[in-house]
Amino acid sequence: MLSDSSKHLEVQVGPSGRAMAESMDPALLEGFQAHFNMERQAHATYFGAAIWMGERELRGFSKHFNDEARGEQEHAAKVADYLIARAQSPELQALEAPDQSWKSVLDVMSTAFLTERDVTTSLQQLLVEAERVGDSRSTVFLEPMVEQQIKAEHEAAHLLGRTRFADGQAAAVLVIDNELREGVAHPAQLQ
Ligand SMILES: [Fe+2]
């Protein structure tokens, strides 16, 4: 019958009017929006760190954080792409002004590690929530992000440890700065 077959052509849409294959649990969506903005906040933090290092002639550290800042912007963009694909509208929320009052290179590296730790926690919570509501599109999206994030956390822990080892001595800090200038930031690898 005509009325029945036309029913098959009904397409659910999201807030922007985009075709939606599967609606998203409100709490999960809220978590995605918060995570999207957390990546943007991490971008601002790392850009602040790049400026702080640049002002102190630590060009390797500055480059490292400028690259990290770009990476966080890309992570935010990746989440935005995913939300759009799910017919949801990514919400740009107000960011906090990053605290730029670091007293030492060690302080900055500690901030970087804590930032990565918090981002990992947020992603893991999102994954748990996605699993809880049975949103398999989201679990497929999040699993590789969690894996990548754990690597980022590992690297931040390594750089924090190396900086701690330098103990504020200029020569040692400059060795790390030169390494970072060349893009060497990875931890020891035993496999
Ligand atoms: Fe990130």
Structural write-up:
The mean pLDDT is 95. The relative contact order is 0.14. The chain has helices spanning 2-7, 26-55, 59-85, 105-132, 136-166, 170-181. It is an all-alpha fold and 191 residues long. The protein has one domain: Ferritin (Up-down Bundle). The chain has 6 helices and no strands. The chain binds fe (ii) ion (FE2). Fe (ii) ion is lined by residues 39, 42, 72, 75, 119.
Element pattern in H and E? HHHHHH
Predict the CATH topology.
Answer: Ferritin
User: How many distinct folded domains?
Assistant: 1
Unreliably modeled segments? none
Mean pLDDT: 95
Tertiary shape = elongated
In the CATH hierarchy, the architecture is Up-down Bundle
> Treating each run of at least 4 consecutive H or I residues as one helix, how many helices?
6
Give the distance, in angstroms, between the N- and C-terminal Cα atoms.
Answer: 64 Å
What would CATH call the class?
Answer: Mainly Alpha
What would you report as the Rg, rounded to the nearest angstrom? 21 Å
Q: For the record, what is the CATH homologous superfamily label?
A: Ferritin, core subunit, four-helix bundle
Structural class computed from helices and strand pairing: mainly alpha
Q: List how many beta strands DSSP finds.
A: 0
**Which ions and ligands are bound to the chains?**
fe (ii) ion
